[in-house]
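PT: before anyone asks, these are the final sequences, not the draft ones from last week. 1025 residues across everything. Please model them as a single complex and drop the result in this thread when it's through.
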Amino acid sequence: MRRQDNIVNDVDWITILLYGILVILGWLNIYAAVYDEQSVKSIFDLSQNSGKQLLFIGGSILIIITVLVIDFKFYDTFAYVIYGVVIGLLVFVLLFGHEVAGSKSWFQIGGFRLQPSEIAKFASALALSKYLSTVNVRLDRFFHQAVALGILLLPVGLIILQGDTGTSMVFAAMVLAMYREGFPGIYLVLGLVIAVLFVLTLLVPQTYLIIGLVVLAALIILFNKKSVRNITLVIGSLVIVLAFVRSVDFVITDVFKPHQQNRIKALINPNSDPLGYGWNVTQSKIAIGSGGFLGKGFLEGTQTKFDFVPEQSTDFIFCTIGEEHGWIGSLLLIGLFVTLMLRITMIAERQKSKFARVYAYCIASIFFFHFLVNIGMTIGLFPVVGIPLPFFSYGGSSLWSFTIMLFILIKLDAHRKQVLVRL
Amino acid sequence: MNDNRSLIIQIAIVVVGLIYLVHLFSIQVLDDTYKVAAENNAVQRLTEYPSRGLISDRNGELIVVNDPMYDLMVVPKEVEAIDTLRLISLLGISQEDFTQKMEAAIKFSWVKPSVFYKQLSVTDYARIQDALVDFKGFYVIARTVRSYPEAIAANALGYIGEINKSRLERDTTGYYKQGDYIGISGLESYYEEFLRGKRGVKYRLVNVRGIEKGAFKDGEYDTLPIPGEDITTTIDLKLQQYGEKLMEGKVGSIVAIEPQTGEILSIISAPDYDPNLLTGRDYSANFNVLQNDSLVPLFNRPIMATYPPGSMFKSIQALIALQEKVLYANEQVFCEGNLIGDHAPPGYYDVRKAIMLSSNNYFVKVFRRVINQNVDPNTFIDSRIGLEKWRDYISRFGLGAPLDIDIPNGKGGFVPTLAYYDRYYGENRWKFSTIMSLSIGQGELLVTPIQMANFAAIIANKGYYYTPHLVKDIGKGEIPISSKYTTKNYTGIDSVHYEVVIEAMADVVKSGTGQYRAKLKDIEVCGKTSTVQNPHGEDHSGFIAFAPRENPQIAIAVYVENAGQGARAAAAIASLMIEKYLKGQTDRPWIEDYVLKGYFGD
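LR: through. Structure below.
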């Protein structure tokens, strides 16, 4: 039954091609983001971000080889061990880590920095996949739901403690994978409702919001079967919702840190103070908006390379594409990402092992979340959350993390035919 | 169910992608505001100020130049953790000033530079230059201010200042912008469009810190500043300086004109001020001081102060009467001396003797002949006809209306009209005896010193004048001066009649009222004194003259307020000016001392 097929024939070349294109485009963009006409430096110059990124890309190739060489059963078998080690690292970094920009999430080893929270993404994906693929674990059972969420919430808690809320939110995205595996959709709906209510609370004066909600509740009661149970349910929900609304204000002012408050406020009205906390969003939109249909041309952007857009090599890298390559460039980039994500879901659906399928969906969810939030914030549809755009944002940890994530999936997929027995 | 869910997830991915693309299409393709905002961000319009034209005297000596000074700029975004106390002590401003200036800068722009502190002098800049590196976000740009190496002719040259709001609104050319400097008075104002040059503009790409990152579109839209045209004035620096020295401590004017060209050699307004006071950052403070000075140094007396002409006007009366043929040069007119008060004794007078001795009664008689020519039997109507005819002559001498000189705001003095007397006395209620005092240059008559200098030039030219002007040359001869300054204006009085008056005016200096202080050894000076009656105090001393008699080089009018007889202060000053101009120096120290001492009483 077992075939010793050549790995080269079995890997999903479409995904690898997409990966390659994204990484190369990302590298060129990092060069463009800080390109300075007055002191032109080579794209290979190691003092430049682009030169360093090329080193990281080189490192990625080593990682890819390693990931592909390791036996595919390793990831399944050692999922919990990897998870355990990473949780250990998260605790360790909390105690001995290096603080960068308010986040204590880095290890500094010589001139080299590593962010364990990046590794935690695929580690958690592995652990969640392992748990959900365990015989008898069913997501319609409360206990199993709780354990699955627990696997995600443990790293989330530790990363929040590091002060890196942005990265911690990525883990929530894996709920999408759970949803695919039977996690009740109502939870997602509830989550969305909470998010919508949260934004409404910030947007609409509280009095109007409360009146609106009461009217809505009355209408629901009016147009539904007027049983005691229904009415109690609606009124009960209303009370909870009102309590939530009231408490949001408290949370905003007393729980959130000022920079977080500002990010939320900037989302709602970036023009209220375009030079203050709305600066990032305003400048980012100006950069992208000024690109027009065809863009200003490679290395011709002014807003990004002249530093009007902050963090133009990392979190706001999309601005360079929007400005220099216009809507066509945005179309290409979004097209590539959507294709990659759809390809991953297709790969997921062709897996015979549940472990690999769940893992694939976790990866898709993580990519989706980064894509959604990162691009969303640059065009002013999401609050500014400091998470990178996969393969485009400058940085080794991020690139390597996504590379490992994606190539574990490719490795698992390459061996999908060998796990027939396990079904 | 699971297939369904997988589809939902895939749809969600595609939908988000589509939403983003639609939103991107709207901000990138449909909405232009971001493109404008991007240009505002990164494209900086740098105005390059041209240097204002320099002004020199008639011999090419520079009298108005440009001095470098520095504007301290600030980019609020760049300012961080500075030692405010140190900065305010360096600049010598108060804490409130600092806060106010900073707020104004922030209000203007967070990322673009704005002027924080204007016009630091070179020495101030040198003092703070080294310290400035400690203040991130602050830097200086070089500009220029006017400077006057010789500090002369302040009122004639005028001054420049920041354009004010109403002037900005009146500017139909759209050239000026808030904060621009503009000529406010004098030559600076009159020749503004030549002096100012043309601003250049540079479009530069700048980064968020305002640091230049190269030309915008390779400088396609850039223009170079065109420097202002240099102007050569007609002023003779040495003569002007000498005149200002003579007028120190006095109130009055000197105007000296080159008769054959109308070029103003000197124009002195006393008291004067140092034009350097109205430059640089003390402009406002100094301006207030000057404006509140009770001696009004900002009042440009040669063209704005009006006085009755007094006896110098008698020459005009003689000329008109001769031209009208109601008087003959050698005609002996007996004057009883009972028509009007007089210093000249009764007896027979001709034109020459009457001017020399400044007989009042003679000129009353002469003026009556001009006014009452018996054209109409009704003496009231006859006087009207006569006055109208007389006014016509007078206006051709450049009186009664401002001379069109190249300094703004000149006054025209006053020559009464028929309507004026009708209003004052009633129609046909006035006749010669009512207006008799006009005959000796008193009554309602008012003239400015420059009009009288021009009158002296007319006599020197025997019948014509060029409108007096202060500019000889614009832009090294490339721009012609206005044709109004190269056109002869004739008085309509034959030159033979001038010969008579010139003879008389020569006598005034040789042996008449001017003999003591106006006579020069080798130069024949023709002059006429005026003791201008002043109801408010001591009489004004006035004198007009030209010299030499043959081929006159200089015509001059001097007024010294409250200095008594024309034969004293004014005659002495006029003769010193003539001597200085024609000989290059004066060798009558006793007259010079007399003038400088400034006491002209008995």
